[in-house]
Design goal:
By secondary structure, the chain is α/β, with parallel strands linked by helices. Helix content is about 45%, strand content about 20%. The chain folds into two domains: about 5-100 and about 215-265, Rossmann fold (3-Layer(aba) Sandwich); about 100-210, Rossmann fold. Helix 1 (about 20-25) crosses helix 10 and helix 2 packs across helix 3 (about 75-90). The two termini are about 30 Å apart. Bound molecules: D-glutamic acid.
Length: about 270
């Protein structure tokens, strides 16, 4: 089998990264994909850096054993805590991408001299990874960040597009720290599932920056640059693995991919 036919590997703590996997399959329908949801350990946003690093390495071992040509860390918390380590660990065995750098590249061109907001897990926000990367750009973007730790578990439990999620979202977004922002970065891959509710909160007046499509475009570029894009007709194979079985994961996967999917239980820690 040619390396081009090898799968794209994704991982997240749960269903969040499916938002990115879906955007990738929409853009690159021929590609084979393998998704790992580390449901045994979610939420990552509450875990220590060392714990997230050790989960990430184990998942990468699994994705490498499946011959992934590229590993996309489809989780902001793991991108913040483990990207450098994973990149070094994987070395030349596969390409590695995170979900933060593509968003930084996007705002660099669009939001100079503007004030923008960022919401994410405690891990992502307290790591200040976005603030550091913006500082490195050496341009003037005022970043206002807010940890919103209830949102990922709420979404994982299927609470979106209802009155409970609406009041939690409104409560967070009314925080004075986010006043007068001109765009809001969804710094967690679970949040595209509540993007409509966030847009409604702002009456569609500001841009809600959802990383899924932005990341999919950079992934396509990276595969092209490395001559790894699957550029011939292929019936895409999609495999989903979880470290602990949850109903909501299976339901969400079907919801996203609208086809029969095979969900396999893969307890990495036994
Ligand atoms: N989807 C994840 C992120 O982007 C993780 C959420 C969590 O497990 O806390 O940060």
């Amino acid at each position: 089998m040619k390396k081009k036919q090898h799968p794209i590997g994704f991982f997240d703590s749960g269903i969040g990264g499916l938002t990115v996997a879906q955007a990738v399959t929409k853009l690159l329908p021929n590609e084979n994909i393998i998704y790992f949801g580390d449901t045994a350990h979610l939420p990552y946003g509450e875990k220590s850096t060392a714990a997230i690093q050790s989960y990430s390495i184990k998942i990468c071992d699994f994705l490498l054993s499946q011959k992934c040509k590229i590993i996309l860390i489809a989780c902001n918390s793991a991108s913040a805590a483990a990207f450098e380590l994973v990149k070094e660990y994987v070395g030349s065995k596969a390409l590695v991408m995170n979900v933060i750098d593509p968003v930084i590249n996007y705002i660099e061109s669009k939001y100079q001299n503007k004030k923008i907001g960022l919401i994410g897990t405690k891990k992502t926000i307290l790591s200040e990874v976005y603030a550091h990367k913006i500082k490195d750009l050496n341009i003037n973007i005022e970043l206002k960040s807010l940890p919103t730790p209830l949102l990922a578990p709420m979404i994982e439990e299927g609470f979106f597009n209802n009155s409970i999620s609406e009041s939690i979202i409104a409560n967070y977004l009314s925080n004075p720290n986010l006043e007068n922002i001109e765009a809001l970065i969804l710094g967690c891959t679970h949040y595209p599932l509540i993007k409509n509710q966030i847009q409604n909160f702002y009456s569609n007046e500001i841009e809600i920056i959802d990383s899924a499509e932005i990341v999919a475009i950079e992934l396509e570029n990276m595969l092209k640059t490395n001559n790894l894009i699957l550029d011939f007709e292929n019936i895409s194979s999609k495999k989903f693995f979880v470290s602990d079985y949850t109903n909501s994961f299976e339901a969400s996967t079907r919801h996203f991919f609208k086809e029969m999917i095979s969900l396999e239980f893969y307890p990495l820690w036994n």
